[in-house]
Amino acid sequence: MDDRLIDLEIRLTHQENHIEELDKVIFQQQKAIDLLSEQLKHLQQKLKNATEVNILSASEESPPPHY
């Protein structure tokens, strides 16, 4: 009976260690996701601003040189 109890305690300890390691990994991944999401928002805003400013309408465009 004692051997079974000791075996269960060892297994529980290993599982707790694995859970803590996985929790740390999940936390780091969430930080990375948050950072990437923020960077994506910033880039989307930059792209939106760049396309609004840099695109000319058809009437403002000069014809290509071969015309």
Structure, described:
It contains 1 helix and no strands. With 67 residues, it is mainly α. The protein is rod-shaped. The model has no long low-confidence stretch (mean pLDDT 89).
How would you summarize what this structure contains?
The chain is mainly α. It has one helix and no strands.
Quote the distance from N terminus to C terminus. 95 Å
Largest sheet: none
Compute the average pLDDT.
Answer: 89
Category by helix and strand content: mainly alpha
Characterize the overall form.
Answer: rod-shaped
Low-confidence runs of at least 5 consecutive residues: none
Order of helices and strands: H
- Number of β-strand runs: 0
Strand content: under 5%
CA-atom Rg in angstroms: 29 Å
The helix content, as a percent range, equals over 70%
Q: Helix count?
A: 1
Task: Name the features.
67 residues, mainly alpha, 0% strand
Describe the SSE topology.
Elements: H1 2-54
